[in-house]
Write a structure and sequence with these properties.
heterotetramer; A mainly alpha; B mainly alpha; C alpha+beta; D alpha/beta; C: alpha+beta; Dipeptide-binding Protein, domain 3; 6-stranded mixed β-sheet; about 20% strand; D: Rossmann fold; 2 domains; 4-stranded antiparallel β-sheet; about 35% helix
Chain lengths: ~325, ~290, ~525, ~325
């Protein structure tokens, strides 16, 4: 397993490095002079030149990159247009998104895996049709629209839940949940639809697998056949899917936070794009990409834990 | 002794396969419904200028936020524009983005994927790293970034969506090519000294077609929703051009006063992507019997 | 949610420069603390519509930032409720030398910065020198005529100017007049992360995107007047949730209520709605001579609008400002045709006799289109924003121009990108706002004088240049009135810019709190507010 | 009295492309400690028949007929009752030791599971017994192997593990479905040896499903030949080899390399599609003896010698082979 993970980690490092280059170039490629954003209503060319100089924007791109990257390596992502440290801003925003994402994953995994297992076990029956159809509906519903509909129903009409905003957990735990319930549902339904389909198809193939037949032939109860033999193997597939869904989850968080006005990481990303706050944007996208790579590495670890073939032999051919 | 084999019907196997596929397809009412609705949306997009009662931008400042009536089937929006007409016109952006983005993604991904899977080795490794890098950026962030860099417009949103969808497709095409390369008939062709290009064109590509078709049908609804998201965020279709995402974005300020403005375009997006998803699911079922058996 | 006119207000007000002292408003509804008794203590939470930028007056740009500075960074001068300039840290208005090149400012005694260090003339010199020399200083251009600062003694600061500059005192009543603690500046850290000035409150903490907290200062010279223990500025960019929070009591003051919520809140008995007509404006900048880029020598641009003054007039006459206000802003803004707001004392004298078409004159516009000799004229309108409200404005204009035969295509553009294009001259018409300045010079000079640093129109008119430069040097109100009237006539006839309306801001204040003041500058003044006992 | 009596067993699969009749009217019995060989080409319904007895087929299968074991009709028994029989009274060894073991669990766990389920052993006892079982099936270093995963074992060892699992509870019947197909010849012999050993030591009745008549000749007492879902011939092993009656059996015997039998012959043609049951002898299209009668009627089973049944209109040894 060590070798396998080491290789994966090496690849991840390369990806992070390349990502940082892409981030840097991408941010510079954005139209809209950062100096103009910093100078605001003051567009006197002399002032703009001074700003460029002050922020090092007048230096050649490779120099700027090296400066930025070497500081980023030391954990310093620079100061944003508000003169606040980007790293600190990101750190304060991430827990919010993380909480949202965790809730969503919880909802998605519980609903998705449960429904997927049920659908696979009752394949062709009414509950299977119901589950597969709702998964398809879940995949087809634009989530931001679902969010708007939830706001109309639960916030505007019924007044059960707040339409938007965020209250931190330590400030007011109940209110925190109230504010995150709809967003997490919106984000979780999409995930649960994907997971349901994946779980169902993984379960279907494990349920027809020879080892499940063996388990049945051993006289095991259907419950242990499904929950132990079939599910364990399906989860190996499903774990990788959860990992791959992470990008979708971050994307979903961007728009969900936008709709429900949650000051999380996703909203920070959009703010940075809209305000052309280039240091902030660089930091945000770099952290997103790194986070994604790291989580995928974690998924690989979980995957190897679930899959003894990788764990023991170090080979990743199943 | 004469041994006569009569167990296999002597008909053209391709025609037979087509017939079987058609029969399997017709036996899936949801897939058929999806197909019909998808066709309806495509027609609506093409025929919008003919069938829409009003032009997309026709404002009536004396009928703001009107309820549905004989004149305005689904009422009017905050600028007095006919919502029904705008939904018809909006189908153009969605279908265009959905189809073109998918075609673009395919055009980018399939050759790259085939090259990676067919040649393997360092080419494959390099491409794999590249797709890893692309995949490291969440789809929407890539799309948002590209839309911001290229400037917001339907074309650029389509490009962004296409590029955003490519990495996943590269992986799929690579996997298929990798598997097909090991097939006997490909090996035979290699042994017979056929050129790589010929093998890819004659054997690899045609045999991954059904997988690609299924992927395309699934990628279209994703791109339709993607277009709506980008337009909703102001990074896609730019008003006054109608698009369902733009309509939703506009409607956001009127959730309390006129929730219908948010409901109708959402239903349109939902039905449109659902229809393609149903179609894609049906195609997958009939083309890939592994999932049904 | 990005609904309503929040985003617009942002365009118009968001990026305010230094001298932007505002002025204007008749509706200034300062609820002076008097009637009921105020109890000491308590936290006031203000829901801000945007996030302030750097809390360092040297580089600060945003309108909301000035709201926060009001509580913790006092200035040499301030505005009273009638928008007159009054001394704050200075002991009196400046003594101006005859040649208008030397300003002598007497300072108040016994004042301490919030870190306990003394406030004196040396601090004034340190601060203004910083404003003039700091890399990336946004203050510099506001006070650039200052050539040097002397501090002959602890309570006297002398400013030497390189040229007469009548708006200087107004500038010193805004961020350029905020004096920073030399000790804090010398500490080497980022001043923005721990700003120290003279003020009733001192900076406590800031969480980006969430809140800024200031607490009552023990060093403040007038702390007897300060009732609140702390003020929390919460950043709530979504107007609906801001209103919701106000009604729920989570915040006590709401910055800029969105138009659709105004009627609701006006009916709410626990809330007072105050409004401030701003001194800013929203307009359309027409590209007349910006062919090569801002301040690159201007020459004629080959667009339909640039070619024909008739067409420009027709374009203007096609606009129904009343309908625009109704459709796009729920009728809450102030439609107008001039860069100076009606609330300004300069408005009437400078606009008298000029006609403003609040309603469209379609027939005349059509005739003028014909008279222009341009068949099927077309205009590309660049919108400085991609939000729904801006888009709506664009579409309404498009629809109105279509009625007189002018084809308008609309290009919504991200704000900074739009500025880039505007400065590069790659546009026909550009919808953009200006936050406004107290002095009329601030709303006019930069945009239409040949050397104006905001002259994206590329407008150049020797007569207008002469008038505006004269107005800058002239110190009497009467002569300036005359000059601005002359300037206004030229602008109104040539239309390098078409002005549409002056934004009106609405604020919600819980009735439990007294002493929150809104003047014509649209800033929320809460530093001396408190809870009624 | 026989241990297991199957009567009129039919299995039909409903697929997208119509029904497939995998087994048609199969009847047979199995005695105590008897070894029954079941032979036929792949796809002839041998495996399906026996899996259907324990109801291990997917739900698309419709099973008719009866299968009496221990006074219970297996095809109608309650699921709970059936589960008490599976693995305890009747155990299965499947064809593919590679895929039939769960890759995610240690083999000890997989064997112990049966013991704990049926014999109520504690975790520790189960482990001890598992090691004994591994020893019984001649796996070296069983106390180490017990903690290994299937992918760490060789094919032959996996099959031994399968057998250990099957005999764990000392079942009455062991159904071995092509237990040696996937293995090398030398290992095959070892496995067959092991099965013989088990029968002798434990008195287990064994059903040996195979397409390899050589294997049957080695171990079986009685042989049942299946073709296209039907039983075409049944006889004691010596009788069958001595006097094969059905042309298909003759063909199979021809396909077995035997010393002195000359060139190995193939049965021409292919196994028919089972989509529609022909109202004829299913073998007719490939049969050199087929005539009008074969093509219009299904031949009944007839007893041609004691305990020797055949379903053919023209039974008899192959002239060529006999020659």
């Amino acid at each position: 397993m060590g070798g396998f993970l080491l290789r994966k980690a090496g690849a991840a490092l390369v990806v992070v490095f390349l990502s940082s280059v892409v981030v840097f170039i991408g941010v510079r490629a954005l139209p809209g002079d950062p100096a103009l954003a910093l100078g605001a209503e003051n567009r006197d060319p002399a002032v703009l030149a001074a700003i460029r100089q002050a922020y090092g924007l007048d230096q050649p791109l490779p120099v700027q990159y090296v400066k930025w990257a070497s500081r980023a390596l030391r954990g310093d992502l620079g100061l944003d247009a508000r003169q606040l440290p980007v790293g600190h801003t990101i750190i304060t925003r991430i827990p919010i998104t993380l909480e949202l994402a965790l809730l969503a994953v919880l909802i998605g995994v519980v609903i998705g895996i449960l429904a997927g297992v049920i659908a696979a076990v009752r394949r062709g029956k009414l509950s299977d049709h119901a589950a597969t159809t709702s998964a398809l509906v879940g995949l087809s519903v634009p989530h931001f629209w679902l969010g708007l509909m939830m706001i109309i129903v639960f916030a505007v009409d019924l007044r059960w839940l707040p339409a938007s905003g965020y209250v931190s957990f330590h400030e007011h735990p109940l209110s925190n949940l109230e504010h995150l319930l709809m967003p997490a549902l919106v984000l979780g339904t999409g995930l649960s639809a994907v997971l349901m389909r994946q779980t169902r198809s993984a379960m279907l193939s494990s349920l027809t697998a020879d080892y499940v037949r063996t388990a049945r032939a051993k006289g095991l109860s259907e419950r242990s056949v499904i929950a132990k033999h079939a599910l364990r193997n399906s989860l190996i597939t499903v774990t990788t899917v959860v990992g791959l869904q992470l990008g979708a989850l971050i994307s979903g968080a961007v728009i969900t936070e936008q709709i429900f006005v949650i000051p999380g990481f996703g909203r920070l990303t959009l703010e940075a794009v809209n305000e052309r706050d280039y240091t902030l944007l660089q930091g945000v996208v770099l952290v997103a990409a790194t986070g994604y790579v790291v989580v995928n590495l974690l998924v690989d670890v979980v995957y190897s834990l679930l899959n003894p073939r990788i764990r023991v032999s170090g080979s990743n051919t199943p | 002794m004469s041994f006569v084999d009569t167990s296999v019907a002597a008909i053209n196997p391709r025609a037979r396969r087509r017939r079987i596929l058609r029969r399997r397809f017709m036996r899936r009412p949801l897939a058929v419904a999806g197909f019909l609705v998808a066709i309806a949306f495509v027609l609506a997009a093409i025929l919008a200028p003919v069938i829409a009662p009003y032009s997309a931008g026709a404002t009536d400042f004396n009928a703001l936020l009107a309820h549905s009536s004989r004149h305005h089937l689904l009422g009017t929006d905050e600028l007095g524009r006919d919502v029904f007409s705008r939904i018809l016109w909006g189908a153009r952006a969605s279908i265009e983005a959905g189809v073109l983005a998918t075609l673009l993604a395919m055009a980018v991904a399939v050759p790259i994927g085939i090259v990676a899977g067919y040649y393997r080795g360092w080419v494959d490794a390099a491409i794999a790293r590249l797709t890893d890098v692309l995949l490291a950026f969440p789809f929407l962030i890539v799309a948002v970034g590209l839309a911001a860099i290229l400037g917001p417009s339907l074309t650029n949103a389509t490009i962004a969506l296409g590029i955003g969808a490519a990495p996943a497709l590269i992986r799929i095409a690579r996997g298929e090519a990798l598997a097909l390369r090991e097939e006997d008939y490909v090996r035979a062709a290699v042994a017979n000294g056929a050129s790589d290009l010929r093998i890819i064109a004659r054997h690899v590509l045609p045999n991954m077609l059904s997988t690609l078709i299924v992927q395309a049908t699934v990628a279209i609804p994703a791109a339709i929703i993607g277009e709506a998201v980008l337009s909703f965020l102001g990074l896609g279709v730019q008003p006054p051009t109608p698009s369902w995402g733009v309509m939703l974005s506009d409607a956001q300020s009127y959730l309390a006063q006129a929730p219908r403005l948010a409901i109708y375009p959402g239903i349109a997006i939902f039905l449109c992507s659902l229809s393609f998803n149903l179609l894609g699911d049906g195609l997958r079922d009939i083309l890939d019997p592994r999932t049904t058996r | 949610m990005r609904g309503s006119f929040k985003r617009f207000a942002f365009l118009a007000l968001g990026l305010v420069l230094v001298g932007a002292l505002t002025a204007a408003v008749a509706a200034a509804r300062g609820t002076k603390s008097s009637a009921s008794k105020i109890r000491n203590g308590g936290t006031l939470t203000i829901g801000l519509a945007e996030e302030p930028d750097a809390l360092d007056p040297t580089i600060a740009r945003t309108f909301v930032g000035r709201i926060v500075f009001l509580a913790m960074c006092e200035k040499l001068y301030d505005l009273d409720s009638h928008l007159n300039i009054v001394p704050q840290l200075a002991a009196a208005l400046p003594q101006v030398s005859k040649d208008k090149l030397t300003y002598t400012i007497k300072l108040r005694k016994g004042i301490k910065f919030n870190d306990g260090t003394p406030f004196n003339a040396a601090a004034v010199k340190t601060t203004i020198d910083r404003y003039l020399t700091f890399k990336g200083s946004v203050r510099k251009s506001e006070i650039s005529p200052i050539s040097s600062v002397d501090a002959p003694n602890a309570t006297t600061a002398v400013l030497h100017l390189s040229a007469p500059y009548s708006p200087l005192t107004a500038q010193l009543a805004d961020r350029a007049g905020m004096i920073l603690s030399p000790k804090a500046l010398a500490s080497g850290g980022s001043f923005a992360q721990n700003p120290v000035c003279v003020g009733p409150f001192s900076f406590k903490d800031r969480v980006a995107g969430d809140h800024i907290t200031v607490v009552k200062s023990p060093f403040y010279y007038g702390k007897a007047k300060v009732h609140l223990a702390s003020i929390v500025y919460r950043i709530m960019t979504d107007p609906s949730s801001r209103t919701q929070a106000l009604r729920a009591g989570d915040i006590q003051v709401e910055d800029r209520i969105q138009s659709t919520d105004v009627p609701t809140l006006q009916k709410d008995k626990s809330v007072t709605v105050s409004k401030a007509i701003t001194i800013g404006y929203q307009g359309l900048t027409l590209n007349l001579g910006n062919k090569n880029g801002l301040l690159k020598p201007y020459s004629t641009v080959d667009t339909d609008l640039a070619r024909s003054q008739f067409l420009r007039t027709a374009f203007d006459l096609a606009l129904d400002r009343t309908t625009i206000n109704k459709v796009v802003f729920g009728g809450l803004n102030q439609p107008d045709c001039f860069p100076i707001a009606p609330v300004s004392p300069w408005y009437k004298p400078s606009t008298k006799g000029l006609k403003c078409n609040l309603h469209a004159n379609v027939d005349l516009a059509k005739k003028l289109v014909k008279a222009s000799g341009i068949s099927s004229p077309s205009v590309n309108l660049m919108l400085g924003g991609t939000d729904p409200v801006t888009a709506r404005l664009g579409q309404v204009i498009q629809s109105m121009e279509a009625a007189v035969g002018i084809k308008v295509s609309v290009t919504p553009t991200q704000f900074t990108t739009a500025l880039n294009r505007a400065d590069a001259g790659t546009f026909d018409a550009f919808a953009i706002g200006w936050s406004g300045r107290v002095d009329p010079d601030g709303n006019i000079y930069g945009f239409v004088s040949t050397k104006g640093t905001l002259n994206d129109s590329g407008f150049t008119n020797a007569k207008l240049d002469y008038i505006l430069n004269g107005a800058r040097k002239s110190l009497t109100t009467k002569s300036r009135n005359t000059l601005y009237h002359a300037a206004m006539q030229i602008i109104h006839a040539q239309r390098p810019l078409i002005y549409l309306y002056h934004p009106v801001n609405y604020y919600g204040i819980t009735k439990k709190v007294t002493g929150v003041q809104i003047f014509g500058d649209g800033l929320i003044r809460a530093q001396f507010a408190g809870y009624a006992s | 009295m026989s241990l297991l009596a199957v009567d009129g067993l039919s299995v039909r699969f409903d697929t997208d492309d119509g029904p497939v009749h995998a087994v048609d009217q199969l009847s047979f019995t199995l005695g105590e400690s008897e070894v029954l060989g079941v032979v036929g080409e792949s796809g002839c319904g041998k495996s399906v028949s026996f899996m259907s007895l324990l109801r291990l087929l997917p739900e698309t299968a419709t099973v008719e007929g009866s299968a009496t074991f221990d006074g219970i009709d297996l095809l109608r028994a309650s699921p709970a009752r059936l589960r008490a029989i599976r693995g305890r009274k009747i155990a299965f060894v499947f064809q593919e030791p590679m895929t039939s073991l769960n890759p995610a669990f240690k083999i000890g766990n997989q064997i112990g599971e049966v013991l704990r389920r049926h014999l109520d052993l504690s975790r520790r006892d189960a482990r001890r017994r598992t090691i004994e079982l591994l020893e019984l099936v001649r796996i070296p270093a069983p106390d180490q192997r017990v903690d290994e995963y299937p992918h760490q074992l060789s094919g032959g060892m996996r099959q031994r593990v399968m057998i250990a699992m099957a005999v764990a509870c000392d079942p009455k019947i062991l159904i071995a479905d092509e237990p040696t197909t996937a293995l090398d010849v030398t290992i095959q012999a070892g496995i067959l040896d092991l099965m013989r050993d088990i029968r002798e030591r434990l008195g287990t009745a064994i059903v040996l499903i195979t397409h390899n008549l050589g294997v049957v000749a080695d171990v079986a007492d009685r042989v049942l030949v299946m073709y296209a879902g039907r039983k075409v011939e049944e006889a004691p092993v010596h009788e069958l080899f001595a006097r094969p009656q059905h042309p298909y059996t003759n063909g199979l015997l021809g396909a077995v390399p035997r010393p002195g039998a000359g060139r190995l012959r193939e049965i021409p043609g292919r196994v028919p599609s089972l989509a529609e049951l022909p109202v004829a002898c299913a073998f007719a299209p490939r049969c050199p003896r087929a005539d009008q009668l074969s093509r219009s009627q299904v031949p009944d089973l007839r007893e041609v010698a004691p305990q020797h049944h055949v379903a053919c209109f023209h039974p008899g040894p192959d002239a060529e082979a006999a020659a």
